[in-house]
Amino acid sequence: MPLTYNLLQRDKNTEARLGKVKTPHGEIDTPIFMPVGTQATVKAMTAEELEEIGAQIILSNTYHLFLRPGSKLIAEAGGLHRFMHWDRPILTDSGGFQVFSLSALNEITEEGVYFRSHLDGSQKFISPEISMEVQMDLGSDIVMAFDECPPYPADYDYIAKSLERTIRWAKRCKKAMTAEDQALFGIIQGGVYEDLRKESVEALVEIGFPGYALGGLSVGEKNEEMYEVLEFTVPLIPEDKPRYLMGVGTPEDLLEGVQRGIDMFDCVMPTRIARHGAVFTSAGRITIRNAEFERDFTALDPDCDCYVCKNYSRAYIRHLIKRNEILGVRLTTYHNLYFMLKMMEEIRKAIHEDRFLEYRNDFYNKYKE
Amino acid sequence: MPLTYNLLQRDKNTEARLGKVKTPHGEIDTPIFMPVGTQATVKAMTAEELEEIGAQIILSNTYHLFLRPGSKLIAEAGGLHRFMHWDRPILTDSGGFQVFSLSALNEITEEGVYFRSHLDGSQKFISPEISMEVQMDLGSDIVMAFDECPPYPADYDYIAKSLERTIRWAKRCKKAMTAEDQALFGIIQGGVYEDLRKESVEALVEIGFPGYALGGLSVGEKNEEMYEVLEFTVPLIPEDKPRYLMGVGTPEDLLEGVQRGIDMFDCVMPTRIARHGAVFTSAGRITIRNAEFERDFTALDPDCDCYVCKNYSRAYIRHLIKRNEILGVRLTTYHNLYFMLKMMEEIRKAIHEDRFLEYRNDFYNKYKE
Question: Is residue B266 among the annotated active site residues?
Fold first, then answer.
């Protein structure tokens, strides 16, 4: 078994839980946030810096690597870990989400998806089998099933039909994933519809996966709708398996997700906003480009003990960001990822000490959007 | 005295020499290459990385910092060292070179230079006194005199006239530089004309400076012309003072400069070409974007022991550079600066072991442009 999950502790008041995921490249303490390295690099960061800030696992994108540089090249390099010089666990998505969101879609058939590359318009095809082959070339520890991610909003009938196909694709993925050191997660779809989510979980559990992801969320629906979906879906997932909420989210989303029993998160947001000069602080998000920080010689977040906050001022980082200096993006990225990872570490500690709700309240009392 | 120079050893066959410069922020082994941090940042690098690759002193640009974020802001931050989190020596140029090369020049008067900012076209004025004031705000260890850097080619009469004014400006700089912990270097001008260079050195030595720079070189003249200028100018400089060749140069230029008695160099080239994916190797420069490196899983420079060459392949770095990933520029920049600093370290070792010419021949036998 390439992946095991140990449930270590349950919060008394909520669905929050503490666990440990074991993979071929090491262990992951859950709940965890996974920085995103779309093109085989977490933008602006080295592997050593990711380790320094406590990243235990990162995510990389099959769609992008499939197009460039190509998964065969990465296989020749000895796999994604070696190619990008990262020896801790990696999760790869299936390419499905990007095929549906980035590319010009041509046709969805039972066999797979025909699309045009968002880069050069060339004709491409991905199927469950091809997604598994690509992810085997990459050699990621956790592999995601190839699913259809329907647009939001979509009507019940469309979601229901799409879901049936996604379940058939999940079976094909399981059959095609023959690597013994890679663990395939199933993806629960069903939009915001309770009965469809239930149907999805039941079908996937029957197929049997070492972990389950919630897909099709954070795609345009209201936060409250997403939280509701978590509330009626997560309890259906076997408790001895990790639960991964894909593409989520903000610091608030992490708290709300953990409270509803989620173990794993990923999101490009902390690194993306960093490149535009927006940073998290314990008092809320600030935009460092703003004139108010021109002569502010305090740290990005006076409550933070990261490398950036110990050594640089808001005024300096503002200067760098406004000058388009790479170091500016490095520092905001480093800090934002540290903020997310540190927050997850504190959440784990709070669960361990039976004070998750207290932590949550303290957080919201300080953090204002 | 804020700066002292100790001549430690002279090469037997050439003008090459080994020395030590002491400044308020630490010692510098010469000959030395100084990475350039134009906007209070050596592009893409942290201070810790610069230390890791052996940078002993960096250069920053008065002109850019004068315009943005402004030297008063940096003074408020506690000076440039503190602002940019670099506690080793800093050399600042005078702003003169950029006023003449980047901005739209309005008028050169005896008092100073009227110009338009290259950023927003606003009217600006810099004089010897203003340059000194700005550099005192910055708090650099080594301060450069404000000079006119004439265009190349320029006729004898123009250079001669410009030189007279630059000498008068040098006197005003010395008077205006009142900071006790900053050392002002004079700048030798005179174009490619031997008698003018001689006149310049003599006038500056009479004024008296703790170090002398050669300006107005590497501005378009042939390499051979520059080397000739060094050959007839450097021997005129008092041997108990450091000699700095401004804005130079390539690996070859460093070798040729050291051989002719130069102690200090700076150049944006290693970092600039890195951003375009060009890297130094012991066999010569390569352009990592080229298709030939697509599946090359060896190090940038197989003879190099830097962090980048130990951990990443040409294929991966090519992928990053072609995708415009920040990490790509980080890795090529790191490697190129390491290459220059390591080369200078080897040159110092070779001088120490009385085999500078042997080192030079070995270098040229391997390194092909």
Answer: yes
